[in-house]
């Protein structure tokens, strides 16, 4: 089975990016299971491409923490572990707290309007079957806050971390019972930023992240038992 372009825009992407998005969706949806071997030849044949774009896609997936490259063994789908999750989310907690404080100082009226709009868009997308679409909408909300800091180096660090964070965000968003709380947290964050209340904004963003940690931890522990 060759690649199918689900989005017309993907027709104009480099082939390695199309392969990357295809494999990422399969991992996030659970079609490719944790620990499953990823053989370049088999994937290339299935997707109807050469091995080169598959190899390039594998390296991008490794950066996101979705794939492990094991010497003399090859690639396999990475497990979601307590250690890897804590490492990523502890760093995210510190950086996002700093970002939301800077945003309270520097956000413009145009960016406030944009923040409200992406929060509204996220609410409309919640509940859809495509978890990558939901996760991307959640990322868009945080991206507005990051840009509002006006700190290019901080934005770069957060964007790099976002790749590592994507899988945990997607796992959390699969739990529809937490969607209402998530929407409320977004609205609370907006309110504190609009009021320029740095300390309260920092508290809410930390709780926002801690809630994700607790849910994912519960999921990991259930799998291990």
Describe the structure.
The protein is mostly helical. The chain is built from nine helices and three strands; from the N terminus they run αβααββαααααα. It has a three-stranded antiparallel β-sheet with strand order 1-3-2. A hairpin with a 3-residue loop joins β2 (67-70) and β3. α4 (82-106) packs across α7 and α5 (109-125) packs antiparallel against α8. The longest helix has 27 residues, at 198-224. The mean pLDDT is 89.
List the helices and strands and how they pair.
Blueprint: H1 15-28, E1 37-38, H2 40-47, H3 51-63, E2 67-70, E3 74-77, H4 82-106, H5 109-125, H6 131-148, H7 152-173, H8 179-194, H9 198-224
Antiparallel strand pairs: 1-3, 2-3
Helix pairs in contact: 1-3, 2-3, 4-6, 4-7, 4-9, 5-6, 5-8, 6-7, 8-9
- Portion in helices: over 70%
How large is the count of helical segments?
9
Strand content: under 5%
Largest sheet: 3 strands, antiparallel
- What is the mean predicted local confidence, pLDDT? 89
The N- and C-terminal alpha carbons lie at a distance of: 37 Å
Shape: globular
Order of helices and strands: HEHHEEHHHHHH
What's the Cα radius of gyration?
18 Å
Secondary structure: number of strands: 3
- Weakly predicted, low-confidence segments: none
Q: Strand sequence of the main sheet, in spatial order?
A: 1-3-2
Q: Provide the structure class.
A: mainly alpha
Considering the chains and any ligands shown, give keywords for the structure.
225 residues; mainly alpha; three-stranded antiparallel sheet; 9 helices; 71% helix
